[in-house]
């Protein structure tokens, strides 16, 4: 990717696990011997706001923020958020979209509307967009909380990082007693076509 | 060994490694995690506390420094306004052991009421400023800061910004160095700032600044990266990273010290480059100082003082300045404007019932700093002012005294904010014969910044159990005769008490009695649901602004949408059930 730096933009809504996913990705990059930075803003995340996390890694990372249109991968935890940020993707980049809607409270005012036909709109920008129903996969595995690890598995397809490093970091950072399950979820995501 | 640390965590690590013994702060985004990290990982070696406000945090820190401990006081940028009184004269007394003041500025107001640039505080007080540009530097500058503080007998500001505080990067980890604590050494002429002694100290401050200027010339944290000499950039803090990435071929003079500036180095750098620019976030602080020395430089003309910088904004500035080819700017892609997601009061938040009662009473509400400020946003739209910590009580009294406003103004303030700077305002209102109604939304935690303890909770940052302060007794002690408690989950009760106090020709305080639903423990009662056949689609429940309530696909005969409740997130606070005119909201039975 550009200047040898890999740029991953992870987006979603507060409470979805965006921050933990970006934390794991950054640790994975570090464990691979790379320089890594990640930037996000805390504060409002618990109150239903937009959450974005910039993760950059490579030989030497300067700005912690991904420049506009230089995201090599966008990992979107939510449909409308995928549409909001799709313009940040570089022309050769990949967008992974979790097929989940979170409708904000503001729609109850009747002045704002959740966008329609989001997947078609994203595909108009990026015909090869990957759409994943991570919630369904997580439910099949027996725990809806596995969504973010499954999405990391899908993301891992696009990154040149050894599988064992992923599994080691997930084991270490998953909530106590959920290491094996999270590794299984990661592998399920890694196999998504 | 290397670790991935945020700037805040790295700074806390620096406190540990470089012999820090004492840390005091009031929580404030983006600085809060500094003290949390110290208390979580280093409390065997460093004492850490939440002070009641930033002024007290600094005063306690000053005492600890006089008392011989390497000390840190941390606050968000607006916190230094609160602490400005001790800060300005602290510059005169100097320190005992090393004293670092962290000012965490918030360009782009991610979570603040303004985007002030606190480098001006350093200049105003003749206090040196260090500006890290990475997590590693955030740690390293603690060492430099302590040494500088002790060598020059001055407090030192480490100025962070949100993108340093909350960005993670690799940090080399070291062992703790112990530094001898010599205790307090009596020195009346140094520490007692009466006019005669303070005048002498001011002369020393002026001398000190000259010595610091010499230090800045020789300091390795102000260094030059020579490249092409067509464009020279003077930059520091996070702006350095953006500028380095945007202009890989330019020469850069990187300032680790934001004040005082190394003018000889700057003059020499300026003479070696064809065009000189300053890239700095917020105000043109370096630029003003450099231009005042007669050096030709440009900066704010191309790099706005509004909102934070990034690589794109820096590239655009250099394209506009004619030194960068416009091909580096990526064409933007037109995408659909997606609806906003403003933060909202949580499901089950005890502030919601108060907002509904205030709306019913038809009053103006002078708000304050805390989660309840979110009540300003639609659909609640019930907060009419928010200025700074503690302002609500004085604001409401001022509106009352101005005399022309027909509706009554009510002050709305949280427990932590009341303790921070509301008590003095309340005493003043009583003293001056006010008749205002003041509501303390007491959720017994500092919630907005992530649930920190304060004197109204029952433990300290170190985890020690304490007796919580009695807010009602404080109000009575400053002379409020009418202090009442209400259950904010009961709209009728809250409204009735509010009405009675509004009608009373005397100052009164109403204190709500429900804890935060997030901190310290999640509150989760039996959830509610909407019986669709009873729902008349009136939208009353939508107007309480609860994230668990959304628009149903189902409509009434006029095509208006009914409501639906997500029983997974509903906490069973019953506010929506109380406003429903059709009794359509009932307990959920699975």
* Low-pLDDT windows of residues of chain B: none
* Spatial gap, N to C terminus of chain A: 22 Å
Q: Give the name of the CATH architecture of chain A.
A: 3-Layer(aba) Sandwich
Total DSSP E strands of chain A: 6
The CATH topology of the largest domain in chain B is what? Answer: Rossmann fold
Mean pLDDT of chain B: 97
End-to-end separation of chain B: 52 Å
Helix/strand/pairing category of chain A:
alpha/beta
Please outline the major beta sheet of chain A: 6 strands, mixed
Q: For the residues shown, what is the average pLDDT of chain A?
A: 94
CATH level 4 superfamily of the largest domain in chain B: Thiamin diphosphate (ThDP)-binding fold, Pyr/PP domains
Helix content of chain A: 25-40%
Number of domains as seen in the coordinates of chain A: 1
What kind of sheet is the major sheet of chain B? Answer: 7 strands, mixed
* CATH fold field value of chain A: Pyruvate-ferredoxin Oxidoreductase, domain 3
| Beta-strand share of residues of chain A | 15-25%
Count of DSSP H/I helices of chain A: 7
Q: Helices, strands, pairings?
A:
The complex is a heterodimer of chains A (193) and B (590).
Chain A: E1 6-13, H1 18-31, E2 35-40, E3 50-58, E4 71-76, H2 79-85, E5 89-98, H3 118-125, E6 130-132, H4 134-141, H5 147-156, H6 163-173, H7 179-190
Parallel strand pairs in A: 1-4, 4-5, 5-6
Antiparallel strand pairs in A: 1-3, 2-3
Chain B: E1 2-6, H1 7-17, E2 20-25, H2 33-41, E3 47-50, H3 54-66, E4 70-76, H4 77-82, H5 84-93, E5 99-105, H6 119-125, E6 129-130, H7 135-152, E7 156-161, H8 162-165, E8 167-172, H9 188-191, H10 195-218, E9 222-225, E10 228-236, H11 237-246, E11 250-255, E12 257-259, H12 263-272, E13 275-279, H13 285-292, H14 311-320, H15 351-361, E14 364-366, H16 391-402, E15 409-414, H17 415-421, H18 423-431, E16 437-441, H19 471-477, E17 482-486, H20 491-503, E18 508-512, E19 528-530, E20 549-555, E21 561-565, H21 575-579, E22 585-587
Helix pairs in contact in B: 1-2, 1-7, 3-5, 11-14, 15-20, 16-18
């Amino acid at each position: 990717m550009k200047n040898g730096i890999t740029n991953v933009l992870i987006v979603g809504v507060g409470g979805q696990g965006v921050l933990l996913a970006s934390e794991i990705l950054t640790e994975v990059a570090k464990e691979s011997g790379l320089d890594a930075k990640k930037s996000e803003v805390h504060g409002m995340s618990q109150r239903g706001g937009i959450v974005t996390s910039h993760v950059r890694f490579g030989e030497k990372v300067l700005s912690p923020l991904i420049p506009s249109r230089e995201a090599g991968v966008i990992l979107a935890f939510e449909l409308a958020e995928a549409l909001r940020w799709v313009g940040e993707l570089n022309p050769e980049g990949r967008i992974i979209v979790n097929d989940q809607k979170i409708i904000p409270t503001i729609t109850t005012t009747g002045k704002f509307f959740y966008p329609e036909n989001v997947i078609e709109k994203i595909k108009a920008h990026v015909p090869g967009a990957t759409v994943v129903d991570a919630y369904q996969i997580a439910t099949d595995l027996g725990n809806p909380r596995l969504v973010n690890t499954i999405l990391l598995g899908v993301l891992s397809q696009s990154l040149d990082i050894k599988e064992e490093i992923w599994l080691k970091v997930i084991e270490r950072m998953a909530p106590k007693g959920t290491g094996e399950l999270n590794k299984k979820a990661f592998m399920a995501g890694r196999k998504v076509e | 060994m290397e670790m991935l640390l945020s700037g805040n965590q790295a700074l806390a690590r620096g406190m540990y490694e470089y012999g820090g013994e004492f840390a005091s702060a009031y929580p404030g985004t983006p600085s809060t995690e500094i003290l949390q990290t110290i208390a979580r990982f280093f409390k065997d070696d460093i004492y850490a506390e939440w002070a009641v406000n930033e002024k007290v945090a600094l005063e306690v820190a000053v005492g600890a420094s006089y008392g011989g401990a390497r000390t840190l006081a941390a606050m968000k940028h607006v916190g230094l306004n609160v602490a400005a009184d001790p800060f300005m004269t602290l510059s005169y007394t100097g320190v005992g052991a090393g004293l670092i003041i962290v000012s965490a500025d918030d360009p782009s107001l991610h979570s603040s009421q303004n985007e002030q640039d606190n480098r001006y505080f350093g200049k105003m007080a003749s206090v040196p400023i260090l500006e890290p540009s990475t997590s590693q530097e955030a740690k390293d500058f603690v060492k430099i800061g302590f040494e500088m503080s002790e060598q020059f007998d001055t407090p030192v500001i480490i100025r962070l910004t949100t993108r340093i505080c909350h960005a993670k990067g690799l940090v080399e980890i070291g062992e703790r160095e112990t530094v001898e604590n010599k205790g307090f050494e009596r020195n009346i002429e140094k520490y007692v700032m009466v006019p005669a002694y303070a005048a002498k100290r001011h002369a020393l401050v002026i001398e000190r600044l000259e010595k610091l200027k010499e230090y800045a010339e020789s300091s390795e944290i102000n260094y030059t990266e020579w490249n092409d000499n067509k464009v020279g950039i003077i930059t520091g803090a996070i702006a350095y990273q953006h500028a380095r990435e945007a202009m890989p071929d330019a020469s850069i003079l990187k300032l680790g010290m934001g004040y005082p500036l190394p003018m000889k180095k700057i003059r020499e750098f300026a003479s070696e480059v064809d065009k000189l620019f300053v890239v700095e976030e917020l105000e043109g602080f370096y630029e003003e100082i450099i231009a005042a020395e007669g050096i030709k430089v440009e900066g704010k003309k191309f790099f706005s003082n509004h909102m934070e910088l990034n690589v794109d904004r820096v590239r655009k500035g250099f394209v506009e300045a004619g030194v960068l080819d416009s091909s580096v700017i990526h064409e933007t892609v037109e995408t659909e404007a997606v609806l906003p997601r403003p933060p909202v009061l949580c499901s089950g938040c005890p502030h919601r019932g108060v907002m509904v009662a205030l709306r019913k009473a038809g009053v103006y509400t002078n708000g304050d700093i805390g989660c309840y400020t979110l009540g300003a946003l639609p659909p609640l739209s019930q907060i009419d002012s928010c200025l700074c910590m503690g302002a609500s009580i004085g604001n409401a009294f001022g509106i009352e005294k101005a005399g022309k406003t027909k509706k009554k103004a009510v002050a709305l303030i949280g427990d932590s904010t009341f303790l921070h700077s509301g008590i003095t305002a309340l005493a003043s209102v009583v003293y001056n014969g006010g008749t205002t109604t003041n509501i303390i939304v007491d959720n017994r935690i500092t919630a907005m910044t992530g649930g920190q303890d304060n004197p109204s909770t029952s433990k300290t940052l170190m985890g020690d159990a304490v007796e919580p302060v009695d807010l009602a007794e404080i109000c009575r002690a400053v002379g409020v005769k009418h202090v009442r408690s209400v259950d904010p989950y009961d709209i009728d009760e809250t409204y009735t008490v509010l009405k009675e106090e509004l009608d009373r020709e005397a100052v009164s305080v109403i204190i709500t009695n429900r804890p935060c639903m997030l901190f310290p423990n999640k509150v989760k009662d039996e959830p509610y649901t909407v019986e669709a056949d009873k729902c008349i689609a009136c939208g009353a429940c939508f107007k309480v602004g609860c994230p668990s309530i959304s628009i149903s696909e189902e409509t009434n005969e006029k095509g208006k949408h009914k409501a639906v409740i997500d029983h997974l997130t509903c906490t069973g606070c019953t506010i929506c059930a109380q406003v429903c005119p059709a009794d359509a909201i009932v307990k959920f039975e699975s």
